[in-house]
Amino acid sequence: MNIKFNGESRQVRDYITIAELLEELTLDPRRVAVEVNLELAPRDRHGETTLNEGDQLEVVTLVGGG
């Protein structure tokens, strides 16, 4: 299945969840914000939110500083 990930086409397996995709990409779910089709995806729902063909994801890594 094809999705857009940060503006680039990416092939992923069918029925993948946000949590599974983040794990495959070795991204720490505590340090990223995920938007699916222009809506923020709540972190507590990443494990149950299944991606669909053509979904557009934006993933932003959160960095502390000061």
Structure description:
It contains 1 helix and 5 strands; from the N terminus they run E-E-H-E-E-E. The chain is mainly β and 66 residues long. It has a single domain, classed as Ubiquitin-like (UB roll), CATH 3.10.20.30. The chain has a 5-stranded mixed sheet with strand order 2-1-5-3-4, with no helix packed on it. Strand 3 and strand 4 form a beta hairpin. It is globular and about 40 Å long.
In the CATH scheme, the class would be Alpha Beta
Please tell me how large the radius of gyration is: 11 Å
The CATH topology turns out to be Ubiquitin-like (UB roll)
The share of residues in extended strands comes to 25-35%
Helix proportion of residues, in percent?
10-25%
How would you describe the shape? globular
Quote the average pLDDT. Answer: 96
Please provide the ordered H/E string of secondary-structure elements.
EEHEEE
Instruction: List the total number of helices.
Output: 1
Task: Please describe the biggest sheet, giving its number of strands, its sense, and whether it closes into a barrel.
Answer: 5 strands, mixed
Any guess at the CATH architecture?
A: Roll
Q: Oligomeric form of this entry?
A: single chain
- Counted beta strands: 5
